[in-house]
Amino acid sequence: MTLSPPAHPLRLALAAVLGVFLLLAPPSARAGNVTVFAAASMKNAMDEISAKWTEDTGHTATVSLAGSSALARQIQQGAPADVFISANPGWMTTLQDEGLIAKGSRFDLLNNAIVLIAHGPDAAKVEIAPNFDLAGLLGEHRLAMALVEAVPAGIYGKAALETLGVWDQVAPKVAQADNVRAALRLVSSGEAPYGIVYATDAAADANVTVVGTFPKDSHPPIVYPAAAIAASGNPLNADFLAYLRGPVARAAFERQGFVVVAD
Predict the structure, then answer these.
(1) What GO annotations for molecular function exist for this entry (predicted)?
(2) Structural domain tally of the chain?
């Protein structure tokens, strides 16, 4: 019978040290994943940020995009989110009041603006002012907006039109979409000649033109808060939230037209 030679003592020692290191390494030192629920208007920026997060840390980020209201309701129903970024402080506050947001994790991340867009690359500018004739501009056609009672972009848009005194005339002509990107697609495809979306959405689509920007004082400030979900327990949450505040994420947000307000 042939006996195998004994293992070299140095190899045994190295294997033992490696085994102990792997056992003692904290979970955050190993590749992991963070699930991010983010407002649909953040798609382009979050695509870039999630890719850079993986490149820089070795971890992955699964980003689920939808209207903030839909995402908040999913979190209320126990969806396995780790981090939530809302396009409206109200939905974040609702979750916070219900104890669903990790204490001390919430902060304001971004600002945005809402704009009137038109189909095509060379649409004429529109002067947005009190009592401007948006209904006449639409004629028999529709104005694309996100859900005006639930989705932040729709809520802000309706508030602006009310402040400017034109909502009652325009309301029957509004085509409501599930989220702001869906409203953008209606205008981009030509199904609706005009729409109200975030400035960042308009910048992401060459098939639309910004024909006017709504005055800041015509609607509540557009603020995107971010926070960790209380039930998550993912050790990567704090790291990812810090990454959103860092230089890589800041550059990605600014390329898409967001104003970064987080320190």
Answers:
(1) metal ion binding; molybdate ion binding; tungstate binding
(2) 2
| Structure-token pair, residue 187 | 């205008």
Same domain, 148 and 174: yes
Burial label, 4 (beta-carbon count in 10 A; 0-12, 13-18, 19+): exposed
Q: Which of 216, 224, 176, 218 is nearest to 196 (CA)?
A: 176
* 4 assigned to some structural domain: no
Q: Answer yes or no: are the C-beta atoms of 170 and 161 closer than 8 Å.
A: yes
In angstroms, rounded to a whole number, what is the distance separating the alpha carbons of residues 93 and 27? 30
Residue 10 lies in a domain: no
Over 80: is that where the pLDDT of 36 sits?
yes
In this structure, what token pair is assigned to residue 3?
A: 């006996």
- Residue 146 has a CB neighbour count (10 Å cut-off) of 33
Binding-site residues from annotation for molybdate = 41, 68, 153, 180, 198
Q: What tens digit of pLDDT does each residue of 235-255 get?
A: 999 999 999 999 999 999 999
Determine contact, residues 92/228, Cβ cutoff 8 Å. Answer: no
What domain range is 194 assigned to? 114-218
Tokens of 86: 């809302």
In a domain, 3, yes or no: no
Stretch (H or E) spanning 241: helix 237-245
Annotated binding site: 41, 68, 153, 180, 198
pLDDT for the residue 43: 94
Cβ neighbours, 10 Å, residue 42: 27
Q: In which residue are the tokens 């970024």 written?
A: 85
Whether residue 196 is found in the same domain as residue 255: no
Average pLDDT in the chain: 90
Question: Does residue 193 sit in the same domain as residue 126?
Answer: yes
Domain assignment present for residue 8? The answer is: no
